[in-house]
């Protein structure tokens, strides 16, 4: 948990050690390099070296628009260099930021080839193959509403492939990723990341929703979204989309490995990689939804690369090793 805003206690920072030959590296080296390749992001890291601060406080202190600060903070968080947490505020929730590391040490490659590899596939949010949704529901492209609002038939409109935001109250949406694991390779984990949030009327920061994921028809677990965020324009959200609508979500990472299933490192079930039988499938099915009888039926918003705060679609990564 992030402590109350203010000065950081001594000794909170840690050393991040990256061995580029390691097959078990926890951080994406390329993402870290991208995050550090910006004077503005370095300013944010420098400021967070002595403070825990909200996004607006960072924007004010460093004299940048809140939307610009949000974009930089999201990239730093994606790289694992800062951590954020939503805290109650006088109006809704605010995002507090803390710097995770004080030092970064990099061990360059020795020339030995790693036996670990990855398969990476990016799926546009409109490229689903099946949908069974209930109103409120709808689709929006980067420039306009697609089809008709609150009409489930719109989810079969040919223009759905251009969707950059989709939402529904309960039901599911299903994607199929090509299985590109090489023959005889041994999968070690599967990871799926996306920007996601609840679906409230207009928006509501306190609107919990139980979002469930299935992979290859196996239910891997449920994560509770805290709310549907709006009132402040998302860093990527188009100008034509009104601010009183949903604006952005949270970047969530679902992961299944040999020891179980996790969201952002928090265990959600005992389902393991072996149960998904990735090696036997021609494609990998990923279904995301809200059950009609869930404890919190708060709907779902899924954001594409041109909406919200994160410039990405639904991203699947499989780590595997060769024999």
Automatic annotation (TrEMBL):
<keyword id="KW-0238">DNA-binding</keyword>
<dbReference type="InterPro" id="IPR036388">
    <property type="entry name" value="WH-like_DNA-bd_sf"/>
</dbReference>
<keyword id="KW-0805">Transcription regulation</keyword>
<dbReference type="InterPro" id="IPR051081">
    <property type="entry name" value="HTH_MetalResp_TranReg"/>
</dbReference>
<dbReference type="InterPro" id="IPR001845">
    <property type="entry name" value="HTH_ArsR_DNA-bd_dom"/>
</dbReference>
<dbReference type="InterPro" id="IPR011991">
    <property type="entry name" value="ArsR-like_HTH"/>
</dbReference>
<feature type="domain" description="HTH arsR-type">
    <location>
        <begin position="20"/>
        <end position="115"/>
    </location>
</feature>
<dbReference type="InterPro" id="IPR036390">
    <property type="entry name" value="WH_DNA-bd_sf"/>
</dbReference>
<dbReference type="Pfam" id="PF12840">
    <property type="entry name" value="HTH_20"/>
</dbReference>
<keyword id="KW-0804">Transcription</keyword>
<protein>
    <submittedName>
        <fullName>Helix-turn-helix domain-containing protein</fullName>
    </submittedName>
</protein>
């Amino acid at each position: 948990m992030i402590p109350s805003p203010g000065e950081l206690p001594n000794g909170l920072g840690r050393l991040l050690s990256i061995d580029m030959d390691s097959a078990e590296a926890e951080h994406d080296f390329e993402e870290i390099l991208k995050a550090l390749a910006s004077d503005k992001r370095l300013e944010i890291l420098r400021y967070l070296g002595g403070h825990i601060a909200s996004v607006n406080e960072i924007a004010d202190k460093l004299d940048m628009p809140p939307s610009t600060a949000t974009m930089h903070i999201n990239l730093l968080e994606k790289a694992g260099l800062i951590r954020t947490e939503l805290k109650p505020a006088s109006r809704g929730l605010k995002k507090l930021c803390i710097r995770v590391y004080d030092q970064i040490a990099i061990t360059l490659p020795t020339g030995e080839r790693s036996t670990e590899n990855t398969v990476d596939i990016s799926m546009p949010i409109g490229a689903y193959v099946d949908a069974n949704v209930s109103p409120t529901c709808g689709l929006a492209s980067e420039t306009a509403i697609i089809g008709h609002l609150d009409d489930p038939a719109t989810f079969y409109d040919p223009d759905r492939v251009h969707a950059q935001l989709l939402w529904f109250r309960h039901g599911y949406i299903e994607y199929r990723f090509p299985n590109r694991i090489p023959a005889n390779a041994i999968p070690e984990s599967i990871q799926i990341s996306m920007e996601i949030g609840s679906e409230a009327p207009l928006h509501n920061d306190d609107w919990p929703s139980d979002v469930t994921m299935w992979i290859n028809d196996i239910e891997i677990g449920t994560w509770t979204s805290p709310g549907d965020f709006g009132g402040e324009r998302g860093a990527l959200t188009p100008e034509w989309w009104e601010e009183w609508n949903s604006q952005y979500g949270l970047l969530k990472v679902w992961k299944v490995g040999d020891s179980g299933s996790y969201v952002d490192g928090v265990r959600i079930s005992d389902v393991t990689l072996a149960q998904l039988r990735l090696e036997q499938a021609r494609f990998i099915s990923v279904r995301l939804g809200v059950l009609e009888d869930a404890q919190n039926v708060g709907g779902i918003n899924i954001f594409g690369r041109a909406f919200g705060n994160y410039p990405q679609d639904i991203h699947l990564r499989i780590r595997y090793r060769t024999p």
